[in-house]
Amino acid sequence: MKKLLTIIKREYVTRIRTKGFIIGTILMPVFILGVTIVPAVIAVMTSEEPKSIAVIDFTQEVYDGLQRELDRTNDAGERIYLLKRMIVKPENLEPVKQNLTEEVNEDKFFGFIIIPKDVFEGNEVEFYAKNVSNFQQNEEIQNAASRVIREIRIRRAGLDTKLVEEITREVGLKTFKIGPGGEKKEERGQTFIIAYLLVFFLYMAMILYGTFVMRAVIEDKSSRVVELLVSSVNPFKLMAGKIFGVGAVGLTQFIIWALTAALIMAYSGALLGMFGLDATGKNLPIIDLDMAILAYFVLFFLLGYILYATMYAAVGAMVNAEQEAQQLVTPLIVLLIVPMIMITYIIGNPHTTISVVFSMIPFFAPMIMFTRIAVDMPPLPEILLSVAILIGSILLFIFLVAKIFRVGILMYGKRPTLPEVLRWLRQS
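User: That's the sequence. What structure does it adopt?
Assistant: Structure tokens below.
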């Protein structure tokens, strides 16, 4: 046991002192700070410039309503859409369009709108500009034109416009999540964000730290350090020491990142205040993370990490260089990609047969079962069964991989073939 702890300590201390660990640990909080504070700062500080837009209205009915509807102002109190009516005869449309196009290119106009005579039947308005990739702007213009044209249609039909608008007014939908104890909490997509982000962290962690384990084995093997190690400790303890040592490094990083995220959210108002902005923090998305979900995250992080790190250790033992490992690692990455592909389906359908079955498959369970827990807590027996299958699979893989590891770490030369690996398993 003492030798195992020595190996764990060696792996842990060696890695937390590396530049990669220090830089990675610092960069993630910076990233978290960026994605939470920066959008709020930009949203508050950005003030849209007024846009001069020419309007050719062949109906002679829509322009005034469009002027009324596009009345949004920027922080300086200026109208964003400055419309200018152009009186054009239909036969002169093409040369006028050509002139307006030149003026748009010369920045005399931001763009121009053409409202055809048959817009009430054809139901289309044309908008020309150098940049039509601003979907919010396009939607604003489209919605404004739709409201005006709909109002004119209603009036032409001899109906009361306000009465029709009141009758056809859209109904809002407030969503509330019912917890296990019957408590109700308003839900605006926080669950999707939490589930997706945490599952993405699981995905990255298993790839990242599994690769670290593989590299550690390859480095010790290529430098012949492993020959000295196995002379004083058995291969199983060596493998376990590397897995748990690197796992402790990963857990340390995640704890630092989680504490940083919690502090940023707790003091978001003060951080905004440093920029001279609203210090209430209302511009930031507040995510209420259930401690039970966080506990399950740690559980499935540890189980998933041990499972994949064990397999990565086997890959490291079988090859002589990192380049040789790429082909053998591909199936492991595929196993991790499958639950990432399915996450959207699982979030929307956490209790279907497919979701339940996949959450019981050990390769997918860390991410699939955790996603189900984050979205809508499954029955406890299902969670316990998934954990039991995962633990059983880990023990089986440790038993099998230990045999590969015992022979592979002392094998040099060409990479072993599958029949050779199977022979190791039978003979060890």
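Residues 279-286 have pLDDT under 50 and may be disordered.
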